[in-house]
Amino acid sequence: MAHKIKKAARNISQNEGLIFEKSAPGKRGMELPPSDVPAVDVQSLLGDYARADLEGFPEVSEIEVIRHFTRLSTWNYAIDLGMYPLGSCTMKYNPRVNEHIARLEGVATEHPYQPQQLAQGCLKILATLQRCLLEITGMEAATLQPAAGAQGELTGLLLIRAYLESQGNPRKKVLVPDSAHGTNPASAVIAGYEVENIRSDSRGQIDVEQLRNIVTEDVAALMVTNPSTLGTFEPRIAEVAELLHARGAQLYMDGANMNALAGVAQPGRFGVDVMHLNLHKTFSTPHGGGGPGAGPVLVKSHLEPFLPVPVLVERNGQLALDPIRPRSIGRVRAFGGNFGVLVRALAYILAYGPGIRQATEDAVLNANYIRKNLEGVYDLPYSSPSMHEVVFSDNRQKKFGVNTMDIAKRLIDYGFHPYTTAFPLIVPGALMIEPTESESKEECDLFIDAMRSIAEEAASEPELVKTAPHHTRVGRLDEVTAARKPILRWKRNADTEDRS
Amino acid sequence: MRYLPKSPSERRQMLDAVGARSIRDLFGSIPEEFRLERDLDLPGPMSEAELIRYFRERAAENSVGYTSFLGAGVYNHLRSVVTDTILLRGEFLTSYTPYQAEISQGTLQAIFEFQTLACELTGQEVANASMWDGSTATTEAVLMAERITRRRRVLVARSVHPEYRQVLDTYARNLDMRFEEIGYTASGQIDLQALAAAINNETAAVLVQSPNFFGVLEPVPQIAQIARGAEALTVVSIAEGVSLGAVRPPAEADIVALETQSFGMAPSFGGPYAGVIAAREKYIRQLPGRLAGETTDSLGRRGFCLTLATREQHIRRERATSNICTNQALCALAATVHLCLLGKQGLQELAAQNIAKTQFALAELEKLPGVRRVFRGPVFNEFAVQFPRSMRMINAQLLRDKIIGPLPLGPYYPELTKCGLVCVTETTTREEIERLACAVRDTLAVPV
Amino acid sequence: MYPSDYRYTKEHEWVRVEGDVATVGITDYAQHELGDVVYAEMPKLGTKLNAGQSFGTVESVKAVSDIYAPIGGAVTEVNEALGDAPETINKDPHGAGWLIKLKLSDPSELAKLMNAAAYEAFIAEKQTEASAS
């Protein structure tokens, strides 16, 4: 059995309890330089405001901190270890020089409120990034403030609302395809809109005829992801844009799949009015276990007056952040955007320059190579050409009682992170695969090999797949009890010492 | 290109396998009129050395060499190199959201520890895995209070950070919510009488910040008592987490929105930081954001997994508690590492040093003719000072001495012209404080 | 399997009437589709419901299902025991896994619901559709 698995082997990893379980009074991990001012009796100064104690706070040494977190890190999979075939996540290489740059003195050390003449370097970084993103997307104005894609979506919808309000009627609904990422409808609601879900057509694309009937005066916008979450380009996107515009509605594009377009096509030319980008996807900033990211929003000029404050401007050869914009939607975040993330994204773009097109081409090549090699092994529900990602379904394996989740878990034994399961919603039992351009032919071949092998196992030894993973530190976890009786923090004297 | 692991011959092999003559064939699904025929007009490409040089040049155009007395929600604190040692481990830096628990136990356990620390710090029962920052965490905490009480009116202390209030306004404008501002008194704290007069049975929550924008500590127990009387919730926002090393936590609050930037995150011109929402256990299902929970596998081994996901957008979509997906996980990890390094003693000492330096700075400044402390209330490491001249003039002078002086309050509070906010932390030396006082004295000595 | 004295909805709720008190729950088919129940969100006592109106949700780890009132009435009781033991909905969906009790406003609404035989036919059809796709 073991010889089938080529990419990974079992290994010894260290055990490690919770940091609180290592704590003992009197230990410390960090010493402070002695104070050079007279000491103050905190208790008597603060009186009723004083804190009695820091109950339950850990007390450990530096070496224990290093060991603790280093051991924990060895329990994780990561891009540095191998492919994440996660559809729509664009898990590409996080260039290490970007980490160095973000930590430079004069970059990491700057306070958002320092006098702007002492922040010209930071402002230039923002201005250059803005210019680059505008060129990549073919849009006309930008804000770098939103902290994540979801916040970008909200910002974009608020811009649409403000614009429509200025035209006399903010309208009531936002149309969201059933294939959309969950943040789309969630953001629409926060923007004060009702959500109307629209069905994709038989090719998993926007049903333009249905759209003609649905776009009424109550519709503020359609949120579209292009390429779609199926990884296919919306061929009638220009028609869709025209249709919406003719009826006074706006086209929002979720830019999560920009990795298929950068350097090849500009959404601004499809008729998109407003879109966001995920810098932690297409633009390589690290996922870090869940964030931080950034969700800059790019708009056409009619939406520019409503952009969040402050807006980057140039005055007398100096850059400045202008907080006075009478029609602005306001702020979506204090202090500007996730500057450290923006720095990394700019470094990524500058590394490629105009050659960024090559990354897009390699991403699309990898996805198509994988599709070609797994067609016939896994069911392909939609035959439209794939761009940077491909969506299969578990239809062929279901008859053996094996579903996409099981296959994903077995893929872990083969040394990979699972692909995206159970999304998009329009494909029951989906396997959504996006390799990105960071994968070598060798890694792609190993992945194809693993997926073929698992398909064979599903037919001949389904139990093996259904009870996977087998080689990990912990097996499938009891998520049911975790939800029924949530334990969300360590407590002293709670009976939770590791019993394994 | 160094980030692309393919040789030309491998590309050729793969194109052949796919049955394409050239890569252009794979973009055939994009209508021709949209396919770019030119290269994008972008700066670069740059080698690693060129990139570093480019950003070093930008860095040199900022404030290196200046001493800063700025705070106002972003604080300069000591950081340990140990934090970056951990953050730069590829298994933390380049890992994904821990949806696949079996190969994300490192991230999940670290989140569990972060959640625990957030509870310990704030005196609350549950905490989430992070929000984008203090300002959005505060906004989401208010929205949470509105969901829980099903009321639409929120009383907001004017002493809450102006930009936090702006964010709240942007979000709430379209959600049928009404805000009323409650002013502050000579102590710099919320006007309790005005609060008691304004609160009624339509009030979802009272929002205060402590220490507030003026650096003054708010009387949370009294505020909570007034709120409870109207069955409204108390939401406390905390921008300076180090204060919790010396100041009693807002245990009487129902929801706390904490900014953790002070724990191991550099100021970085505004972000990324990490907010967190902590609350009473009974509100758990209204909490936005991810939650890591402890559980076991089939062999009884302890492990951790994301839980209560049905609150979130990927399941509940338009009915989710929030639209948040990507959070600030790596920054939260920085806070976790930093807090573990500091530990109980370290945090208490750190807070005490901040207080000592601040009291010293207050005393030095109050010695100057015409300079006085604006508010009587207790402060942690920030305070408002009134000067006999305009802040613009004073700060312009200070800049010549390479000092970034107090943040002028006039632009935010028109009644507080000639007032500035001074922040002093453990990183500010006595010499720098004395130099500030000297420079101000010299400025004031020059006739207008 | 499906008690003959219950009535059933297309959304897979059941209702049992005794006098003017109706007990409502979800069917065995529903609990099976949902998987392990982790939580049931219940309405407040006294809430007035119309037939077809959503009154709460039943959640598994990865899904949320709205539950709809089969008939109109005011909520007189909710099954508090489900707070500690939501799995009762899986183990005994037609008995101890009941969700709410209503004081009926219009008993004639019962006639619009399916009886056990009709419901069994309804889900048999659903299952055939599912395996054909």
Question: How would you explain this protein's 3D organization?
Answer:
The complex is a heterotrimer of chains A (500), B (448) and C (133). Chain A has helices at residues 42-46, 62-73, 96-102, 120-137, 149-166, 183-190, 208-214, 237-246, 339-352, 356-374, 395-398, 404-413, 441-460, 462-466, 479-484, and strands at residues 141-143, 173-177, 194-198, 219-225, 250-254, 274-276, 297-299, 311-315, 318-322, 390-393, 420-421, 430-433. With 500 residues, chain A is an alpha/beta fold. Chain A has three domains: 2-73, no CATH class; 100-354, 3-Layer(aba) Sandwich (Aspartate Aminotransferase, domain 2), CATH 3.40.640.10; 358-481, Aspartate Aminotransferase, domain 1, CATH 3.90.1150. A seven-stranded mixed beta sheet of chain A has the order 1-7-6-5-4-2-3, sandwiched between helices. A three-stranded antiparallel beta sheet of chain A has the order 10-12-11, covered by helices on one side. Chain A has a two-stranded antiparallel sheet with strand order 8-9. In chain A, helix 4 packs across helix 9 and helix 10 (356-374) runs parallel beside helix 13. The model of chain A has no long low-confidence stretch (mean pLDDT 95). Chain B is built from 13 helices and 15 strands. Chain B has a seven-stranded mixed beta sheet with strand order 2-8-7-6-5-3-4, with helices on both faces. A four-stranded antiparallel beta sheet of chain B has the order 11-12-15-14, with helices on one face. Chain B has two domains: 67-78 and 343-445, Aspartate Aminotransferase, domain 1; 81-338, 3-Layer(aba) Sandwich (Aspartate Aminotransferase, domain 2). The termini of chain B are far apart. Helices cover 37% and strands 14% of the residues of chain B. Chain B has helices at 8-18, 48-59, 81-87, 90-93, 105-122, 134-149, 162-172, 192-198, 220-229, 313-316, 329-366, 391-400, 430-445, and strands spanning 67-68, 126-127, 153-157, 178-182, 203-209, 233-238, 255-259, 275-279, 292-296, 302-306, 372-373, 382-386, 403-404, 407-408, 419-423. The longest helix of chain B is centred in the C-terminal third of the chain and has 38 residues, at 329-366. With 133 residues, chain C is of the alpha+beta class. Chain C has one domain (7-132): RNA polymerase II/Efflux pump adaptor protein, barrel-sandwich hybrid domain (OB fold (Dihydrolipoamide Acetyltransferase, E2P)), CATH 2.40.50. Chain C has helices at 28-34, 88-91, 116-132, and strands at 7-8, 13-18, 21-26, 39-41, 48-49, 54-59, 64-68, 73-78, 100-104. In chain C, strand 6 and strand 7 (64-68) form a beta hairpin. Chain C is globular and about 45 Å long. The relative contact order of chain C is 0.24. The interface between A and C is small, with 5 and 9 residues.
